Amino acid sequence: MDSLSKKIQNLGIHDIRNAARFAQNMIVQYEPYQIDIRRATNTDSWGPTPKHLAKVLRNRYQVPLYLMTEYTLKRLVDHVATRPKNLYEKARKDYVNYGSEWRVVLKCLVVLEFLLLNVADGDELNQVRSCLVTHKHLLSREVMGYRVGMSNDGKMEVHERGIRKKCEQVLQLIEDSQYLKRERQRNARNNLKMRQQGESSLYNANALDSSESSATDTFDDDEGDEELPEGVPQQQQQRRRSHIEEQRRQRREILRERIKNTELERKKQQERSKEQEEQEPDLLDMIDFNAGNNDSGDDDFGDFQGGDPTGAGLSLGDTIDLIDWITAPSDPSTPKSSTDGPADKKESSKKDKDAFADLFSFSKSLI
C-alpha cells in the first residue's frame, strides 16, 4: 500500500493523459495505424519525435497510404473546427485540450510533410499526393485561416504564424513537382548522413565493447524499437540493423578464434621446449670420472710384462741381456790364473756345459 500510495503521489498530468488516451483507444477500438497517428499528433509539448514518425510510416505495409493520409487530415479538421459536432467534441475542446488545440494542428501538418518526403517513389508518393490534392481546399481555406483562440503560454500569434508557414510548405510540395523532387533529394541526403553518423558511432562503441570482451547493445524504446532517424524507412532500418548485428557476430567469432589459436600455439611451444630439454644429453653425464682410476693397477702391457710361468722371474729384456752376456767372446786381455790346473779346466768346462744346457732349456721353455 505504501508503494502504491507513493506511485499515486508521483503521478503527473502527463501520466494521467496517457492513461486517458489508453482507455480511449481501448474503448473506441482504433486501428493500429490510427493509434500511431494519434500518438504522433497528441497535445504534448514535444514531438512528433523521429520514433513516432517512423512508427507511423511502418504501417504502410498493412494499410494503404491514402487511408493514413485521410485519417491525418480528418484529425486536422476536427481540431481546426471552431464549432464542435457533438457534446464529446465540445468537452474535449473546452476542457481536455483547452489551450493545446494548436499543437494537434501543427503536428498533423508535420506528419503530412513527413509522408510527402519519405514515402517511396511511384505508387506510394502518388497515393499521398493525390489524397492531399483532393482535399487541398481544407489546407488552403481552413488551416490558412486558423486562429489560435487560447494558448497556455499566451503566444497565440507566434503559433498562428508557425502553422501558416508549415501549411504553405505542404501546399508548395503538392503543387510544385520540381520543388517536391528537390526537397525529397535533400531529405534523402540528410537521412543518409544521419545514418552514416549513427553507424560510425555504433561501430566505435562496438569496437570498445569488443576490446573489453563485451558486445551488448540496448535500444531505449518503450516498445522495444530503436529510435530511428527521421525519414528512414522501417524496412531499410531493419535490414541495416541485421547487417550490423551480423558484422558484430563475425568480429566476435574472429576474436574468439584468434585467442584460441594463440593459446594453442603457446601450449604447443611449451610442449616442444619441454621435449627438447628432455632429449638434449648432459655433457657432464658423458664424462667417466673413474676411467683414470684402475683399482687393479694393470695397464695394457701388464700381461705381457708379467713374470714367466716357470717361476724364473725374468723379463724378456733380462733374458736377451743374459744371452748376449753368455755368448759374448772372452776378452784375451783378461789374464788367466796360473794356478788353474787340469782338474780346474775340467771343472770349468763342465760348468760351461751345464750353463749352456740350462740356457737351452730356459729358452725352450720360453718358446
TrEMBL record:
Swiss-Prot/TrEMBL GO biological process terms: actin filament organization; endocytosis
Pfam families (alphabetical): ENTH
Gene3D superfamilies: 1.25.40.90
Biased composition regions of type Acidic residues, renumbered to the chain: 218-229
Classification via CDD domains: ENTH_Ent5 (cd16993)
Regions of compositional bias (Basic and acidic residues) in chain numbering: 243-276, 342-352
One Gene Ontology term, aspect cellular component: clathrin vesicle coat
Residue ranges occupied by any ENTH domain in the UniProt entry: 25-184
Protein known as: ENTH domain-containing protein
Record organism: Torulaspora globosa
Taxonomic lineage from the root: Eukaryota, Fungi, Dikarya, Ascomycota, Saccharomycotina
